[in-house]
Amino acid sequence: MSDFSEELIRSKTEDDKEESCVFSGTGMSFPWLQKHIGTVETGGKKEKDFAQTTSACLGFIQEALLKHQWQQAADYMHSYFQILEDSDTHKRQAAPEIIWKLGSEILFYHPKSSVETFNTFADRMKNIGVMNYLKISLQHALYLLHHGMLEDANRNLSHAETWRYGEKSSSQEVLINLIQAYKGLLQYYTWSKKKMELSTLDEDDYAYNTASQNMFDHSWKTSVNLRALIQTPGIWDPFVKSYVEMLEFYGDQDGAREVLTNYAYDEKFPSNPNAHIYLYNFLKREKAPREKLISVLKILYQIVPSHKLMLEFHRLLRKSEKEDHHKLGLEVLFGVLDFAGCTKNITAWKYLAKYLRQTLMGNHLAWVQEEWNSRKNWWPSFHFSSFWAKSDWKEDKALACEKALVAGLLLGKGCRYFRFISKQDDQVLRKKIKQIKKSVKKHSVVNPGL
Amino acid sequence: MDFPSSLQPTLFMTGPLGLSNVPDMSFMCSWRDALTLPESLPKNSENGAPHLSTGLLWEPETPGPLPLLPPSPDPWDPGVTAQDLLFRGGFTFRRKPQAVLDVTEQLSRFLWDHGDIAFAPLGKLMLENFKLEGAQSRSKKKTVVSVKRLLQDLGGHQPWGCPWAFLSFRQRRFSILGGPVLGKSVANLLGELLHEELAMRWEQLLLDDAFTGGALAWVPGRTAQVGQLVYPAGGALDKLRFQEVSLTPGGDPQALGDPGHIQLRGPVRQVVTCTVQGESLLAVRSDYHCALWKVSKQGRPTPLQVLQVGKGATGISLSPHLPGELAVCSRSGTVCLWTPQDGLQQVYKDPETLVFCDPSSWRWADFTAHPRVLTVGDRTGVKMIDAQGPPGCGLLLFRGGAEASCQKGERVLLTQYLGECGPKSLHPTLHLICTQFSLYLVDERLPLVPMLKWNHDLPSAPLWAQLLPPPRPGCPQPLLLGGQGGHLQLLHLAGEGASAPRLAGPPQSLPSSSDSLSAFPLLEPKSQWRLQERLKAPTIGLVATIPSSASEPVLSLFQLSAAGDVFHQRLRLQAGPGPNSCASTASWTPQATACCSRWLKDLLKVPPAPPVWAAPTFSHRRLLGRMEQREVEPKGPEALRAAMAEGRLLRQRDLGSLPSAEPPPAPEPGPEDELSTRLEAAWEGQMAAWWERQQGRSSGPGRQPKRRKRRTQLSSTFSSLSGRLDLSDATSPPHSPDRASPEARPQPPVTPPSQESTQELWAQGVPSERQQTLRDYMARLPLQKDTPRGVSLPLSQTSSIRATPSRPQTLPDGTAELPPRRNTLRGAAMSSSQTSSIRATPSRQQAPVLSGSQPHRKKPRMGF
């Protein structure tokens, strides 16, 4: 292609990519600076007519897209193609990406667009210039995948996988890894389909053997495809999940553990809660010792103390023999209930009410006080205000009872929440409320002497 | 709480902004988010059709927002624009446009317009070097300059630094004497300050972050249909208004009754409301103060607390968890938490920015899902800090860098906690972060990696955002994003429970108030321009609400402009997805146009903003008196000028009866049209006869005393200034050594004896102080064919010129409001054209003398 050399030059001077944004003294760039400058008439040369019309056209396309006028946008797009012949090399080279972005969006939403139209467009765009081949191929494959055309998607990815241009740059490598990983994912889909079929077949059947052989081939190919990307720092949840599933299926527990451990503990990776969750679930499936499970969840507790697994963590800690685990169990419960999204979690309140009583009965007042000290100035208004007493009682009486017990234990019987609930006269809960009153009287933190 | 079971694949890179060789994972477009990877294959392959909510569209009821309240009675001025600040010079168009602050022009304008301020102190300092009175400086001291002469010299020249103007000896001396003092000290002192000011204004024009968060709030009332809009009003935005508004499901919102108001002692920059545990709170941020009110169920505010922020407050936010709690951040980099129990508590302090060095002192703070953890943001990133933890520790939530694949020059403009909206809504751990390019959704449980990134492409700074509850159960939540220029975008966010947040359907843009122009009747240009300016006024607040009771969800959107106007628009959720439903376009209803007309009528009653400054009309011309006193002023032009000065239309009644001499290009010239008659005469070869006639007329009884009177006037003005006129200069030959460019004159001017002899004659109509100038010009002319008659001719000609053209000179008197630059310009143009006409006279007037039919008749026009 004739503009290959131009593109090479362009890739070298990548840093002048930002055309419309200019920096002021602070180093900040303003996309609307051009508009301001445009209002000041300059005596010099004006922008060329061609540039003016193309930029106006681009504006119209964007406007139409934001108004969901797909047909209008398509009409403007038709005219915008002229930018591919801009005499300004810089603009001409930036154009394919813009055209692809806008064009694919139009075709994705246009009511009259079909997969065939999209395919044609994508194939044409891939070959205008060389810099966008991989990106467009990947998105094209995702589009096909979305429309359920797995085979076409796979073919597309296979084409892209073998594509090379010039020296293999790091960005190209990442993209190729990504493409291979998606291909691996597609193979995983086929594999899991086969697995489903296999489960219906009899083990002694001849067909079973061929099918399992087939599956094995797939898994081998897939593992090759997925492994490279998983090593790169990033969030690769779907890939890791499917890879581990396949490894587990073939009994490669060590391999799976290694992948998951690496994904969770490699410092170059972002602290993805899912990595720890996957590892925990894997260890649980493996029936790993409790100690091990606790150590995994301890890290998750540090990252996401509000996660629903924390209740499971609490159960594990409660069952543990160690004293400091028992203490941590209390901390975990308080931690969960700190969060706005968990205030109505009845299980957490139930656990806390029960465990709080247990702890106080076990003469661990210091633990409770340690947790309570940092919360005593805001939990009362956050959880135990009279507003919540009324609304909880109205919405969920069981929750209100649990909370009332906790409130009574922590704040004493003078607490508004406790008082409100204890005054309620409910046929069903009368017994329970009586129990709560008794517990509070006996174990409340506020008057431990009584 | 649930965490999304599987997140979108994302590459994670650490590094600075604009790291170029990272494959930008956000290259995918808005439909990328629609492409969630299928959890299990069979599910997807079965329903192959895209299960997208493509039909999700909020259809505006009118093509643009409508005014809700009458315009504020205070005049509004758009203030400084780019045109005022930027260099207009002729640099060529570049790929990378550059903004160049025009300090030079501003400085020179300042010197011209406010010369008294700029130079008076210096003048006082140099008083001993000036001789203000007396004829000639007989002093031996070369350091004393006669002001009168100087002014005389200056008077003859183009004021705008005409490159061909020559310097007189005195001017040279003056500039050598005064140059170091006048040039350097004024320029240095002023220039520095001016540059600083201009740079600041320019920054402010590009991004005015004072109103970040918005100064308009909606306090819900007893029912879903009634609420209060709280917003600042008044020219200084220092009146906090409470306007009750009812939202009827069928029609437009109605303002109920007159608004109540609270007078504050500072402009309101941000108004925040929050209803926690049934208690509505209202927090207001001014430049140096913050205040908190509690709003009762009846809508009455009771003050709770006022905080003073010494370094200036940049952001205030109310806790969505605990009633009465708020976070305030200041320019010093301090974040404080105010609670009813503990009072003010400093939570964080760091004058430095978080990620990299940025000069902006803008800080922001908001709450998170944990009531004791706050986010602290600046232009470079956002950090989560524990109010109870040890100071200095925290976790970066967002980093301006490669982690979020930020562009070069990208900066955080707004961060907002998108708290809980309902039971079936987005995760209550999401934070919205807006930069000038993109919008990021970050989950506080997974810091640094945005869950969603979308390139919003807003043409102005996005400073307002609001997440609304789902309009219908199961519908995605609308997120409203507003730019400073009034640009609005609406995004649909989906993703609850175990799924990651994503965009549901393509985002849409909403009409801005400048789209409403078509609803207003067409006006005369001046008012039309004013209306346009008013509609284009930057937005300073934005709030939306969806009254839930209506069967069909309606979104009511309110917008507050910097001019103090509140606009509203209603949007309806499109019923069903379909290609045709998108095509429908709203049109103006008669009620809407009537509403606009009413509003416009009120707007036009508002007096226009007074000019920012009025330049002094002082000039040396006045000091020297009227050189050219005007004759009787025709009424028309004066009225025109008055109309121009006041900026109104010129009407027939201003003019009275038009003078018959004035009609614009009339086929039949009026009786007074001297030029035409003269041309006619010349054409017919009867120039001499015309001349005779003319002379007879000008020497008639009507003219003579008038001219004499003028001269006496002139001399009296002069006598007040300099005692007596000296003609010593006039006797000296014009080839004095103070001529800067002798080569400009081809021949050493030998004053023709005829001219000397007739000096008295031609000098008759010219004030004596101008005679020298006149003579200089005469001398420069190539007078090859001088004849005594040729010299005698210009006399009357000049007199006739002098008699007529004094009209433009009246301008400085008539219109004091006009900037004097224009006056001086006009005056200068006048004097130059006069001199040129005088200069041209001798050669021109030969034509009728030598031969009546000389083909020179077109030329005289030039002189006039």
UniProtKB/TrEMBL annotation, chain A:
Keyword entries, A-Z: DNA-binding, Nucleus, Transcription, Transcription regulation
Cell location: Nucleus, Nucleolus
GO-annotated biological processes: transcription by RNA polymerase I
GO cellular component: microtubule cytoskeleton; nucleoplasm; RNA polymerase transcription factor SL1 complex
MF term (GO), any: DNA binding
Any one Pfam family match given in the protein's UniProt record, by short name: TAF1_subA
Quaternary structure and interacting proteins, as annotated: Component of the transcription factor SL1/TIF-IB complex, composed of TBP and at least TAF1A, TAF1B, TAF1C and TAF1D. In the complex interacts directly with TBP, TAF1A and TAF1B. Interaction of the SL1/TIF-IB subunits with TBP excludes interaction of TBP with the transcription factor IID (TFIID) subunits.
Purpose: Component of the transcription factor SL1/TIF-IB complex, which is involved in the assembly of the PIC (pre-initiation complex) during RNA polymerase I-dependent transcription. The rate of PIC formation probably is primarily dependent on the rate of association of SL1/TIF-IB with the rDNA promoter. SL1/TIF-IB is involved in stabilization of nucleolar transcription factor 1/UBTF on rDNA. Formation of SL1/TIF-IB excludes the association of TBP with TFIID subunits.
Name this protein carries in UniProt: TATA box-binding protein-associated factor RNA polymerase I subunit A
Origin species: Ailuropoda melanoleuca
Taxonomic placement: Eukaryota, Metazoa, Chordata, Craniata, Vertebrata
TrEMBL record, chain B:
Biased composition (Basic residues): 855-864
Residue span(s) of domain TAF1C helical bundle: 529-722
Stored Gene3D superfamilies: YVTN repeat-like/Quinoprotein amine dehydrogenase
Domain TAF1C beta-propeller: 283-419
Superkingdom in the source lineage: Eukaryota
Molecular function (Gene Ontology), one example: RNA polymerase I general transcription initiation factor activity
InterPro entries: TAF1C, TAF1C_beta-prop, TAF1C_C, TAF1C_HB, WD40/YVTN_repeat-like_dom_sf, WD40_repeat_dom_sf
Residue ranges of the region described as Disordered: 655-676, 692-864
A GO CC annotation given for this chain: nucleoplasm
Composition bias type Polar residues, residue spans: 794-809, 830-854
Record domain TAF1C C-terminal: where: 748-810
Pfam family, one: TAF1C_beta-prop
PANTHER family: TATA BOX-BINDING PROTEIN ASSOCIATED FACTOR RNA POLYMERASE I SUBUNIT C, TATA BOX-BINDING PROTEIN-ASSOCIATED FACTOR RNA POLYMERASE I SUBUNIT C
Protein name per the record: TATA-box binding protein associated factor, RNA polymerase I subunit C
Annotated source species: Ailuropoda melanoleuca (Giant panda)
Gene symbol of the encoding locus: TAF1C
